[in-house]
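INSTRUCTION: Work out how this chain folds

Fields: amino acid sequence; protein backbone structure tokens

Chain under study, with its fold:
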Amino acid sequence: MADLSVYVVLGLVIVPPILKQARAIVVKSRTHRPRHPSQPVPPSFLSKARLTPFSTPFATAVSVTALLLVLISIRNLVPVQYGIDLFVPSATIDAVRTSVYTLYTAPSSHAITSGHDNAPLHLTLLRGGYRPDLFLAYDAPITIPTTVLRDLIDMAGSMLPIGYHTEQRQLELQALIARLSSYEGRRMYLLLGPRPLTDCTFCKSGIDYFWYALPFLWQAYAWRILAIGLLTAHPDDSIAIAIRQLSSFLRIGSRASGRRPTQNDTGSRRYEADRSGWRSTAVTCLGALMVVEMLIMWEFGQVSAQDKRLNHWHCNLHLLRQLVFFSLVVVIYLWPSPRTLSSFEQTIHHLDSTQQKIQSLVHIAEMIDISRSLVLEQQDLVDISRRWKSNRRAAGQEPDHDRILRIAQSLNGNQDAIAHMSREAQQLSQVWFQNVESINQELDQRERIAFAQVHQQHSPSAPSRSRS
């Protein structure tokens, strides 16, 4: 048991980051994320695309997973008293075993038995998963004497919450009742449940029971976190790709039926709900709940002699865990986040836009080169451009670069930066002029080569005429 100062220090160290992360999650969930222009518009809540959870193999896998998780949560909320058990008699087991031996072996090699050697099979899979403790099942206070509790169990055995029907289960029940004869045993039973008391034979103190029950608590949250990870998988993740490849390998859907996909089918397959935005929130919620359970099991779970519901920590935390997990599954499935493009798709879109911009700049540069070459080749156009520039200056309409420099100087701008920009502009102008000159020189060279070729073609004809 730690003192109050330790809890204050832990609270000052742990609580602020948790509150900061929770605030960031809430702000992120309320903030509308911009949608990419190439991203398909998400359908409305009651649209046909949203109401077809089996339109694609990935959507089918997510829908089946969500349905199984909801059924598991509902089953774990129903007490074990409700439901049915499946009892397979020993005679039926012996008959099945005899038929199998008859099919695969010689009839004489299997000795005929009377069925007493085969124990009956008892299946409790169709019962609920919520197992209240003995005090809640019999509505008895936690201070009830052990002999009275034993008499209640003997008088109403059908109300047993754990389903002790076989002889081995009856022995475990008697061992559990024997452990409940002390206050420490009842406190551990109300905090950790019956499993550590019946299974851990080497546990002597509360710390031993806690460390024995901790792996089972981690197991209960581990598969839930893995299920949330599958439910919040991105449509372009490796899991979704594997599901699509498996469905194409098994020829599920339109390929199996031999029909070609229509436009409506293509539109329905184009939209796949993205629930990856809920992953961090759901995992954080489950992790925080697991930490709360560990703290209650370790320190904060107090059991008093008063008859109140708060004493039954194990049952209360079990119900809270199922309700939180059920709520997370329903919210994640029914309200998917707007789909965000993957890093590969974003890179492809950026490359396409960059390529288009480069092509437009190259086209503009070529047009500028051609225009300048045409202006410089015609003296009349050069005179017209000079007169146009002088008229603009006389009218007070300066060129754009001169006006930009004058405005920057009037605003007390950085003279070094302005000079640097001016030098860059001059260098750029020189580069453009050099490109134009190189184009003109190349055109002149092509004209000289063409003129030389024409001259060589006509030159052999003159001597031949003189000789004739």
